[in-house]
Amino acid sequence: MCLGMFMAILDIQIVASSLPAIEAAVGVAGQGISWIQTAYLIAEVVAIALTGFLGRAMSLRWLFVLAAGGFTLASAGCAASETFPVLVAWRVVQGFCGGALIPAVFAAVFLLFPPRLHERATMLAGLLAMLAPTLGPALGGWITQTWSWHWLFLVNLAPGVLVTAAVAAMPAPDRPQWRALRRLDLWALLLLVAFLGLLEVLLEEAPSWGWSAPRTLLLAAACAAALALAVRRLLGRAQPLVDLRAFADRNFAAASAFSFVLGVGLFGSVYMLPLFLGHVRGHGPLGIGEIMVVTGAAQLVGAPLAVWAERRCDPRLVMAVGYALFAAGLGLGGFATVEADFEGLFWPQVLRGLAVMLCLLPATRLALGQLPPHEVENASGLFNLLRNLGGACGLALVDTVLSIRVPHHAAALADRLLAGDATAAREVGLDPALLQGAATMGASALTMAQPLVEKAALTAAFNEAWWLAALCVALPLLLVPWLRRAA
Question: Considering the entire predicted model, what is its pTM?
Fold first, then answer.
């Protein structure tokens, strides 16, 4: 099951570094190529929200088997696609099936194993869940460079068949309740799909449209209306499609907030670092992967340490240390210069990698470990949904900061260079001796320095995005005293 979840999380990451190759192959131009990712994410978050209901109706095993089989079939469809609309349609199927795999694994941790093994099982599942975003961009670049973009999807076929057959042959922790499908609340389903879909589109497009643009505000209003109607519908049903009453549990509500900001920091950092290394440092996909592998190595080292700490310490303390370290790793990333490379980015990556499992293990235990078995699947879906939504918000945060702050920093640097500011010269990588006052720095010389100015402005904007992400991750630490200690 962990292998199937790893495939689902990895899939969106390995595609990210190969979008230009896919764009040229399927003949789509401009911002439309982003729908290859957006279609997957929209379907994924909808599936995560429905996992609790589908798991009760179909049983955990058959839900996972059908989802893994559907994911494998959709991967073959993506690889065989020759036009952009067909590819996007298969990505919707792939995202929906992949989204069902993620919470099913974390539910299985608490349904298949006795409490004494929860930490080990959560560590294994969490390690694979966190490694996929780290390794994905480099792996995707290598696959596309070595073979072709079609193999980004074809690599799923063999493990997909294996996972589907293996889980189907194994004992199930629960029994299906097929009659529950007759009670499917179609109105609630449509409202949830509308809310989650509109939210993903809003977060995808608003940074380029502008957050105050009329169409952004209209989309936000539609999204808020769908959410309000969905919540009213779900709270008014005795057996709702998604049971929001799980948030009445204090630990689950607080741990879900931690899950959300973990998504902001994790997905935001995995998005920012390749962009910085590609646009500022000029590295290719393989070069980016060689630098980013530090985070994955630190996660491997940190996983057993996290299990050891959680067994011997209060989970609240372990989680607080983990999120503080993760926030520190994000904050340190905000001191990069245009020359920052492997050595300059090493320790921020180490801190983030070591902290991830300290964040995930106790938060998962505090959220799900105290719930009755029949509530675990629904709660697991909500818990993972919030992490994915946090990731989408993290990407929107980064895009917004870059779109607003890069022009501001570029203009400010240009003015300082024209004024003969030696500090500004060092920031962009110029010899301060070249600046002998404003008279020696004419417009033609500034034009020649424009690429350096743009890189410096981009670096400054990235630094601000790192600091904002660090602030988001640190804020929920205020909730730690409010948590009950897990048994």
Answer: 0.83
